Amino acid sequence: MQGYIIDIKPVKDDDLIVTILCENELITSYRFYGARHSNINIGYKIDFELEVTKSNIARLKDVMQLGFPWILNIQKMYCWQRYLKLFYAHLKDLEELDGFYFYLLENLVKKIEKQNVLRAIIESYISILENEGRLHFDFECLICEIEIEYELCLLRGFLPTHKTCIKANIFNLQKIKDLFYTKSTIGLNDEEIEKLWDIILLGL
Length: 204
Known about the structure:
Elements: E1 2-10, E2 16-22, E3 26-31, E4 45-51, E5 58-66, H1 74-91, H2 100-114, H3 117-131, E6 151-155, E7 159-161, E8 170-172, H4 173-182, H5 190-200
Parallel strand pairs: 3-5
Antiparallel strand pairs: 1-2, 1-4, 2-3, 4-5, 6-7, 6-8
C-alpha cells in the first residue's frame, strides 16, 4: 500500500500512532519504535504493509519512504508539511475517501518541483474547495449577503466578505475572481500569495 502521512502522535516508549491518507481510505496504524525502522515524518509518502493485531488498530510494518526530488529543500518541505497537517483535521472523521485527495497530493508533488511552493498549494486548495462545493463564485458577502463589487476580504475557506463588514486582509475582486475561475495564481503578487497562505493555515 502507498499513502501520505498526515498525522503522527507519540505514545509510550517512542511508539507512534500514524495516520496515512491512501487512495481510497484514511488509515490509522500503530508504529513500534525500533532502531532498524526507517525514519518517518508528516508529509512523507510511504509504501507499507499492515499487520492485523488483537487490538483495534493495525500495526504499521515494512515501511519504505518514497522520496520527492525536492525533499531536502527546507522551505518547500516546511510548507508541504504544514499543508498536510491541515488534511488530518479536515478528514479525520472519515474512513472511506474517493481518490480525489490522494491524486491531488500526487499532482501537487509534481507541481512543487517546478513551481513556487505556496502558489502550487494555493492552486491545490482552490481545487479542494471546488470539489467540495465550497468555492463561492457568486461573490456575495457572507456577512450582509450583498454582492461584492470592488475590493473584498477573504475568511477561512476563502469565504468572501465586504472590506467594510469585517477587518481582514483586502484583495482586488478581479484578481480573486481570476484565481477562482482559472485555479492559477499567475495574476497575484508575492504579498497577496503570503496573505492567502495565512488564510489556508487557519484550516481547510
